[in-house]
Design goal:
The complex is a heterodimer. By secondary structure, chain A is mainly alpha-helical. Chain A folds into 2 domains: 93 residues, no CATH class; 217 residues, MetI-like (MetI-like fold). Helix content of chain A is 76%, strand content 0%. Chain A has 15 helices and no strands. In chain A, helix 5 packs antiparallel against helix 6. By secondary structure, chain B is an alpha/beta fold. Chain B is 38% helix and 26% strand. Chain B contains 22 helices and 20 strands. In chain B, the strands form 4 sheets. A 6-stranded mixed β-sheet of chain B has the order 6-7-8-3-9-10, sandwiched between helices. A 6-stranded mixed β-sheet of chain B has the order 16-17-18-13-19-20, with helices on both faces. In chain B, strands 2-1-4-5 form a 4-stranded antiparallel β-sheet, covered by helices on one side. In chain B, strand 1 and strand 2 form a beta hairpin. In chain B, helix 7 runs parallel beside helix 8 and helix 16 crosses helix 17. Chain B is globular. Classes of the chains: A mainly alpha, B alpha/beta. At the A-B interface, helix 10 and helix 11 of A face helix 2 and helix 4 of B. Chain A: One of its GO terms (biological process) is transmembrane transport. Chain A: Belongs to the binding-protein-dependent transport system permease family. Chain A: It is found in: Cell membrane. Chain A: It is a multi-pass membrane protein. Chain A: Keywords: Cell membrane, Membrane, Transmembrane, Transmembrane helix, Transport.
């Protein structure tokens, strides 16, 4: 087994362990929430007998550990269980189907925003580093910072006002469903994607700029100058390949945010993503749905960080090739 | 010299530097001429303006510096007046540069071959195929192993001496008229240095390339240079053909550089052992670093440990300092077994053994004042506080010949030699019985080295401390050590009192080390090469 492969297997193992710990924390946290699905559904006036009967029907009267292990075992086999909501028997909805549409929407929006934001941020960061301390640099820095400093909902409303109401370029609502076609979906998701782009642009751009500039004083960059390399080539060929590690970390951090943190944007644009689903499920104490959403977020974070580690290793010859 | 023979001419060159809020003049009016194919050695101490002069010959100044006067003429071109784009086109084509530390001057992200051919291919001077063949040919001429495949490696995969030669190959790619060598062998072991010097000299002579060879080592420069210029405080104080300069230096400062180190401490042969290694072995992971290491350090003695990088001498220091556990054998200190790792040692033992590291830059906390750094062991071991502590710090500074004004300064305000004195003062603050010195004089100029060695000897006479002095430089330990250990590949190949080790018969490895130390004699390298040729 190559050292690279061994490192990946080790990281996969630790990722699995992390997920196990996270799953128990999710379960424990939800157990500690005051009130249950029964109270939330039956209301404050429900008699204790009614609540107990309701809980028994859902199997909530059994010990927490048993329910955790059952849930874990099922989740490991890809079965996320059934939602409490929607009555009893066959009417109760399977969480996997409930979530899959929402998850598709969330990934669609995240991918859309990432494809806009990452190339733009890298280009801005690289050019700002190339022309550092110029007017261009200052304008890029200040405007991206301003965008990140404003609350997401405010950015969203400004975009709606400018692009949807004044210029009429896009719709203000992003109400998509399973029947929406790909290009229609793309059009409707444009405003939320732009909002998310503005939110993460500054992170990536500033990290790119800073990690490039921090390397400009290194001896190999001076050597490149003394070899008569063009300034743009110095940045692209001599600096950037050594600057990836922090840039990859921040990109992954932002990708995770796009998937699990876009709830405000989803609410503003009435976009049916997984964030909204989770918020709704928490307020109605629909625990299986909340657990499933939280677990998906955890898998996303762990998976993306694993990807970041692997990519960082790939971009560093000192880790890839033994001395 | 006919005007057309002159490749590079500087007249009245002035360069300003900007540091810590004020402008200082680094180069103060230098006149210099370099003929085609001539090798001019530039020698001087740190801060004399050597590197600035070398870079100026490429029309380059470092960030914060600027040309303030004079002119530089390179083959009829005005190197100061021309545009950045014009300068850029000269660099890497007609003027090339070989940096001091090849390890940091090669880009870690690219293969050596790609970096070697980069400029020639970018400029369209050679097609990629021509450039690759050219590079392989140069690798071969520079005696690099497996020249066909050598360039496929990354910088971290080859040794420092090889990298320095690869960098010379990179500089030669475009067959430049002028190469600037900025201390290319300073970071190398003596035995490696000989090989690099030899290949550089042969290649440059063969191609008739002119060179500015910058160094602080007179012996090194006298092997290569046709003429030598001596720089002090940004001025050329003396310039003459090499043999004339060596035989008959005229300026006082030049003579002080020439002065052979006159340290001669009488050899001590008594003293109870304070530190004893008995059959010690140690490893890093699965690779064995030390085998069968046995030696004594007598009280109040100066024990030198010499060897090349990778010989295990720093590993010995790490074991004594409690940074690395041993895997076999035993170590005793003051008659008692010494615990392996520093966390298992009691405070008294920690106090009695102090370590002074090679790089004073990185071993002093940059945000602590000198007073805080030296005061810390005083608080820790003796509970001194406030004024009491400060007055003791001032005493220690005085012992290191530094004034009380250093109390409130930060490390960044100090020169390399001053930082190393602070580093030693901090070790002395604990009033130790044994100080482990790991290459403490390596990065320093000859004169500064000598001053620090004198200080160490004086402290020993006053306080009876023992030194375990680790160095790659035979010269350093020659006049002052009582005992000497010669290490090679994790073993002690020879040990004994100084007079024994330095007098024949030598162990073959000791012989090689001694022979590799450059001598201030223009024929030394020739003789060494001739001796190598006749087995």
């Amino acid at each position: 087994m190559t050292p690279m492969l061994r490192a990946i297997v080790l990281r996969l193992g630790s990722a699995a362990l992390t997920l196990l710990i996270v799953s128990s924390l999710i379960f424990a946290a939800l157990e500690m929430l005051p009130g249950g699905f029964a109270q939330a559904t039956l209301g404050q006036a429900a008699t204790p007998e009614a609540v107990a009967a309701f809980n028994k029907e859902l199997g909530l009267d059994r010990p927490a550990l048993v329910r955790y292990l059952e849930w874990l075992g099922a989740a490991a086999q890809g079965d996320l269980g059934v939602s409490y909501a929607g009555g009893s028997g066959s009417a109760r909805r399977d969480i996997a189907t409930l979530i899959s549409d929402r998850l598709y929407n969330t990934f669609f929006l995240a991918a859309y925003a990432a494809l806009l934001a990452i190339p733009l941020a890298l280009a801005l960061g690289i050019s700002a580093a190339l022309w550092r301390n110029s007017w261009y640099d200052r304008v890029v820095n200040t405007s991206t910072l301003a965008a990140i400093a404003l609350p997401e909902f405010f950015v969203a409303y400004v975009l709606i006002y400018c692009l949807a109401i004044k210029l009429n370029l896009a719709g203000a609502l992003s109400n998509v469903d399973a029947s929406t076609g790909f290009f229609e979906h793309l059009k409707k998701a444009t405003l939320p994607a732009l909002t998310l782009t503005l939110v993460i642009l500054a992170h990536i751009m500033r990290m790119t700029r800073a990690s490039i500039i921090s390397l400009l004083d290194s001896p190999y960059v001076e050597m490149a100058r003394l070899k008569g390399t063009r300034p743009a080539k110095i940045i692209l060929r001599h600096v950037l390949p050594n600057a990836w590690a922090p840039i990859i970390s921040i990109i992954v951090f932002d990708l995770a945010y796009l998937i699990s943190g876009a709830v405000v944007v989803e609410v503003v644009f009435v976009y049916p993503g997984i964030g909204q689903l989770m918020v709704d499920a928490v307020s109605s104490r629909d625990m299986p749905v909340v657990q499933a959403c939280a677990l998906i977020f955890a898998v996303t974070y762990v998976g993306l960080n694993l990807l970041a580690d692997i990519m960082t290793t790939m971009t560093n010859p000192q880790l890839r090739y033994k001395a | 010299m006919a005007a057309s023979d002159i490749l590079l001419g500087m007249s009245g060159l002035r360069i300003d530097g900007f540091s810590r809020g004020k402008r200082t003049e680094i180069v103060k009016g230098i006149d210099l001429e370099l003929a085609r194919g001539e090798i001019l050695g530039v020698i001087g101490e740190t801060g004399a303006g050597k590197s600035s002069l070398g870079l100026a010959a490429m029309g380059y100044v470092r960030a914060g510096c600027r040309f303030t006067g004079g002119s530089i003429d390179f083959d009829g071109l005005d190197l100061i007046g021309m545009t950045e784009e014009e300068k850029r086109r000269l660099r890497g084509h007609r003027i090339a540069y070989v940096a001091q530390s090849a390890l940091s001057a090669f880009n870690p992200a690219h293969r050596l071959l790609d970096q070697t051919i980069e400029t020639c291919v970018d400029r369209g001077l050679q097609t990629p195929e021509e450039a690759r063949a050219n590079a392989v040919e140069l690798y071969r001429k520079l005696n690099l192993p497996d020249p066909e495949n050598y360039g496929r490696r990354f910088p971290h995969q080859v040794s420092g001496g090889q990298l320095q030669r690869a960098m010379t190959a990179m500089a030669m790619m475009s067959r430049p008229d002028l190469i600037i060598f900025d201390e290319p062998t300073t970071a190398l072991d003596v035995t490696t240095q000989v090989e690099v010097l030899r290949t550089i000299r042969d290649l440059v002579r063969q191609h008739g390339t002119a060179a500015l060879y910058i160094t602080h080592d007179l012996a090194v420069v006298s092997q290569l240079a046709d003429r030598i210029a001596v720089l002090q405080h940004g001025r050329v104080v003396e310039i003459a053909p090499t043999r004339q300069m060596i035989a008959n230096p005229t300026h006082d400062y030049t003579r002080s550089l020439w002065a052979v180190r006159n340290l001669d401490k009488p050899e001590r042969r008594d003293g109870e052992p304070i530190l004893r290694f008995n059959g010690v072995e140690a490893s890093y992971g699965s690779s064995r670093a030390l085998s069968e290491i046995s030696f004594d350090v007598p009280a109040s003695s100066f024990v030198g440990v010499v060897g090349e990088s990778g010989s295990g001498k720093t590993t010995v220091a790490r074991i004594v300092a409690g940074l690395l556990p041993i895997s076999a054998g035993s170590v005793s200190f003051a008659g008692k077994p010494l615990a392996g790792l520093s966390v298992h040692r009691d405070r008294e033992t920690l106090r009695r053994i102090q370590l002074v590291q090679q790089s004073a830059d990185t071993s002093i906390n940059p945000r602590h004042t000198i007073g805080q750094s030296i005061g810390r062991p005083l608080e820790l071991y003796f509970g001194l506080k406030g004024r009491e502590r400060d007055s003791r710090v001032v005493q220690l500074l005085e012992q290191m010949e530094l004034g009380p004004e250093f109390l409130t300064r930060l490390p960044s305000e100090l020169s390399g030699g001053q930082k190393q004195r602070v580093n030693i003062a901090r070790a002395l603050a604990a009033q130790p019985d044994l100080i482990v010195c790991d290459e403490v004089t390596s990065g320093l100029d000859q004169l500064v080295q000598e001053a620090i060695l004198k200080l160490l000897i004086r402290v020993q006479e006053e306080q009876g401390v023992s030194y375990l002095f680790i160095t790659h430089d035979m010269n350093v330990v020659q006049g002052i050590s009582d005992k000497l250990l010669v290490m090679h590949q994790g073993r002690i190949v020879e040990q004994g009192f100084r007079s024994e080790v330095f007098s024949p018969p030598h162990h073959p490895y000791t012989e090689r080390l001694l022979a590799s130390v450059p001598q201030v004699d223009p024929d030394w390298l020739n003789r060494l090469v001739a001796a190598d040729a006749t087995p």
